[in-house]
Amino acid sequence: MSKVNSSPPVVQLVLRPGLIDLGWGHPDSALLPADLIRQATNAVFVTRSQEALAYGYATGPGPLLEWLQSQIYLNEGRKPELEQVVVTGGNSWAIDQICTTLAKPGDCVLVEAPTYHLAVRILRDHPVELIPVFTDEDGIDIEQLSDRVRQLKRSGRTVRMLYCVPTFNNPTGRSLEAARRQQLVDLAGREGFLIIEDDVYRELSFDGPAPVSLWSLDTHDIVIRLGSFSKTLAPGLRVGFMTAPADVCRALGENGLLDSGGGVAPISGLIVNEICRAGGYQANLGLIVDAYRRRRDALLNGLEPLRDRGCQVRPPHGGFFVWVSLPEVKSAMRVLERAEERGMSFLPGTKFFVGGGGDHALRLAFSFYAPEELMRAARMLVDAIEVN
Amino acid sequence: MSKVNSSPPVVQLVLRPGLIDLGWGHPDSALLPADLIRQATNAVFVTRSQEALAYGYATGPGPLLEWLQSQIYLNEGRKPELEQVVVTGGNSWAIDQICTTLAKPGDCVLVEAPTYHLAVRILRDHPVELIPVFTDEDGIDIEQLSDRVRQLKRSGRTVRMLYCVPTFNNPTGRSLEAARRQQLVDLAGREGFLIIEDDVYRELSFDGPAPVSLWSLDTHDIVIRLGSFSKTLAPGLRVGFMTAPADVCRALGENGLLDSGGGVAPISGLIVNEICRAGGYQANLGLIVDAYRRRRDALLNGLEPLRDRGCQVRPPHGGFFVWVSLPEVKSAMRVLERAEERGMSFLPGTKFFVGGGGDHALRLAFSFYAPEELMRAARMLVDAIEVN
Question: How large is the ipTM?
């Protein structure tokens, strides 16, 4: 084989030596159920190898579609038709394919301010215009959103969709307030735009049941809910799912990519199906929810001192992130410099705003590090904020 | 779990009872190396499970990038830099992502007439205009292509890229003639458009070495060559690769989808790497090339009678397809009806033309059926053509 001075890496994560980097919202590798997945993979090759290795059914392996149908009914009380479920290559893949299949050049796509910064990068690869919508402590401000949409339509623009993370939001950790959920769905139904509900953190709920999904409230056929196995099993599987109106699922299932290449995750989809039906999914979920809850608590404990320092730390009830609002006098960028000098890092709030904002806020991910490391990182951050 | 009257399928292929359907250009499941892949998968989980399950490096697992680099150098005499290789989710995925990342609304994309019909569907999901270019027995007519490009540019259009299958073409089985390969690459370099070289059939070469790739001739940094493991190992792996100019690979590796989701095939990529480094890839390739060669020969033998009936049957030197040209008086659609009455099917030529043509031609895939079945199907086709 060819020798090169430095081999290219296998994984995406890059850790900087001597730094606890709370910028990475990745699952801790130690929490990935390798044995569970290895055993399920063996089972798939024993029982279904020829099927698994062929071009897959466009909307995903039938058995997984059926498991998702029944599981979602169990969890949410709304049962999707099989024609309303698609197995995806993860939520990033789904966002990309939704744009390719449903968006037209010049369409407006609404995004929360702040929103998941890498979803913005996916959306920007498509010829659409991103429009930020204001959020407060309870999530999207429905009044302001409604005004924005009407204003855009008056000026002749097409509002195609809203991308949002209403449950355990990335980056804020907040969830859209209960009453606003129905208001948002009804507004979209009235104004005729789609909602892409990025629901990747739903099952990582630490303090009781997660808020109801927008999809479960949708009587207008306008919500595309994206779920994923990247946080609950493993990112490397590259498998997620979508529950959406039948016409949306049909458009995706019949698009050029799936028509030519077949289903996006034939092997991984069957592996996930095996794990889910053998009960391994729920068992593993219990373990990681406990683990991530402990990490959230450790980080919040470490951040306690910030409360008397004019900072705002809202405890998230699920997901991977804590959002810290600094006093107006403090710049997140300057805090970042001080923090890295002390041995910890994070992402400044500015990364998560389309069209400005976030100068006095920062996102901390508690998914990747053990509680002790999170405590240490929190102490460094408190220190870095004080000296600023 | 939920009970439905008929469970949705696992695989894409749908066979109609009592019909030998040469419309499907799929590998025969019996030729998929299930044991080889199962063993490699076990090895990956033993040696690299945590890496395999994490978010992968954007352009693919380092070891596979290095294997591809050395293997391509061995096969083609040109060694790509590591920055000139990307592990893809298969060629369909690559075509889709190239359009998303590099094409702009209104761009012209040139395609052969005839061309791979499902690539057309992928391209049409993007806001580009498809322009067919004339081909003859030796592939793309460079003169006419050159005129077409200049004419388009004169009319103010942007010619962004040409999509083509120059080696063991789908649907014609033909390969672009040697001298024309350099002429095509030089024309693209001169006129400043990219060539997407769909090179999926290169290694399925039955009668000696395949023609040199356009990529290996490219001194202008304009060829994006797409290779795949879908035909040489298994479609279900959803893994391919791209050798392309470094700036193209960078644009793809840094696009929104890969930035958010990480590499597209972390597990499958490592499985393929394991197979390739253990020598299983070459061993399996020898077996399937022999098998597909026998199938081509069986089909061609069965089609012999057509030669004295005004039909043209060009023996392909590799790939999956035989293209039959009928006398002008015979319609492929009518032949199709007669053929299905007799128990065989195929795709009519019309499917493969953007903007008309192919009424008197048809594509036969010899990849999926055993030689005896191909002989029987050929006899039915000969009969169907006679009675027309």
Answer: 0.96
Q: Which residue has the tokens 């949306």?
A: A248
Q: Side chain identity at B7, as an amino acid letter?
A: S
Residue A284's Cβ-side half-sphere holds a number of Cα atoms within 13 Å equal to 22
Question: Which residues in chain A land under pLDDT 70?
Answer: 1-5
CB contacts of A126 in chain B (<8 Å) are: 100
Sheet holding A361-365, edge to edge: A312-313, A321-325, A361-365, A347-348
Does B3 score more than 90 pLDDT?
A: no
Enumerate the CATH 3.90.1150.10 domain ranges in chain A, comma separated. Answer: 20-33+282-387
Token pair, residue A211, equals 């808020």
* Among the listed residues A148, A83, A71, the one whose alpha carbon sits nearest the alpha carbon of residue A110: A148
Residues of chain B with CATH 3.40.640.10: 39-279
The pLDDT tens digits for B61-116 are 999 999 999 999 999 999 999 999 999 999 999 999 999 999 999 999 999 999 99
| Ramachandran class of B174: left when φ > 0, alpha when ψ lies in -120 to 50, beta otherwise | beta
Q: List the structure tokens of B57.
A: 């490096």
In terms of Cα–Cα distance, which of B167, B209, B188 is closest to B316? Answer: B167
Q: Which of residues 129-188 of A touch B (CB under 8 A)?
A: none
Q: How many CB pairs below 8 Å do chains A and B form together?
A: 264
Tokens 């053929």 locate to B339
- Whether the CB-CB separation of B70 and A1 falls below 8 Å is answered with yes
- Residue A130 contacts by C-beta under 8 Å, 6 or more apart in sequence? A108, A109, A110, A111, A120, A123, A124, A354
Mean pLDDT value across chain A: 96
Averaged pLDDT for residues B107-136: 98
Q: Which one of B9, B82, B125 has the shortest CB-CB distance to A100?
A: B125
Alpha helices in chain B (DSSP H): 34-53, 62-76, 91-102, 117-124, 142-154, 178-191, 214-217, 246-253, 256-261, 266-277, 280-303, 332-342, 371-386
Q: What is the mean pLDDT of chain B?
A: 96
A20-33+282-387, which class in CATH?
alpha beta
> Which CATH number is B39-279's, of 3.40.220.10, 3.30.70.2200, 3.40.640.10, 1.10.630.10?
3.40.640.10
Which chain B residues in 44-83 lie under 8 Å from chain A, judged by CB atoms? 45, 48-59, 61-63, 65-67, 69-70, 73, 79, 82
CA distances to A335, A343, A349, A360, A362 from A326, in Å: 10, 20, 10, 5, 8
Quickly tell me which residue has 């659609």 as its tokens: B333
Q: Which residue has the tokens 């949002």?
A: A164
Percentage of chain A with pLDDT > 90? 96
Q: How do residues B346-363 score in pLDDT, each as one tens digit? A: 999 999 999 999 999 999
**Predicted confidence (pLDDT) per residue in B223-265, tens digit:** 999 999 999 999 999 999 999 999 999 999 999 999 999 999 9
User: pTM for this one?
Assistant: 0.97
φ, ψ at B324 (rounded to 5°): -115, 125
Residues of B in contact with A42 (CB under 8 A): 38, 42
Cβ A375 vs Cβ A35: under 8 Å? no
**CB contact B266 to A (< 8 Å):** yes
